[in-house]
Specification:
Layout (H helix, E strand, L loop, with lengths): L11 E7 L11 E8 L4 E4 L14 E6 L5 E8 L4 E5 L11 H8 L5 E4 L7 E5 L5 H13 L4
Parallel strand pairs: 1-5
Antiparallel strand pairs: 1-2, 2-3, 3-4, 4-5, 6-8, 7-8
Length: about 150
């Protein structure tokens, strides 16, 4: 660590990711994810990404710190086996914008996640490597068929 980078090992930090925005999607080209610093240039991702593909909660990434003190991911060092599910509720559907109701539908599977914003209720959930993927997939299909998301 350098004097301009005071985050010590074990402390929370933001690691930033750059990507090409998807056409017809949110106009962002960066996303910051919470992480726990493991060493001078590695960190363990601590939340589900809303926009960044190819990384999930629990993965270890390498980063570089720029002149402004921002930590930019350069590569994934170790996979976690976890994956991210993103859901966008049908606003006129039976669940509406309710984060609580969406979480209730997914909670039997031990899924945790967060909402992008109240105005744009995109949900990002982490599916752990040992989760009931078949059961989760069946719920996702049912939710799509029933107009939840």
């Amino acid at each position: 660590m350098t004097p301009s980078d005071p985050v010590a090992a074990g402390e929370r930090m933001k690691v930033w990711f750059r990507f090409v925005p998807r056409e017809g999607w949110l106009p962002h080209d960066t996303e910051g994810l919470w992480a726990t610093r493991l060493s001078g240039d590695t960190a363990k991702v601590g939340n589900a990404p809303f926009l960044q593909d190819g990384v999930a909660e629990g993965e270890i990434v390498r980063f570089v710190t720029d002149a402004d003190g921002l930590h930019w991911s350069t590569e994934r060092v170790a996979a976690s086996g976890n994956c991210t599910i993103r859901l966008l509720p049908v606003l006129s559907g039976p669940l509406g914008r309710s984060a609580r109701v969406v979480h209730e539908r997914l909670s039997p599977f031990g899924l945790s996640g967060e909402v992008f914003s109240e105005e744009f209720p995109l949900f990002a959930f982490t599916v752990l490597a040992d989760a009931d993927v078949g059961g989760i997939k069946a719920l996702l299909v049912r939710g799509q068929e029933d107009g939840w998301w």
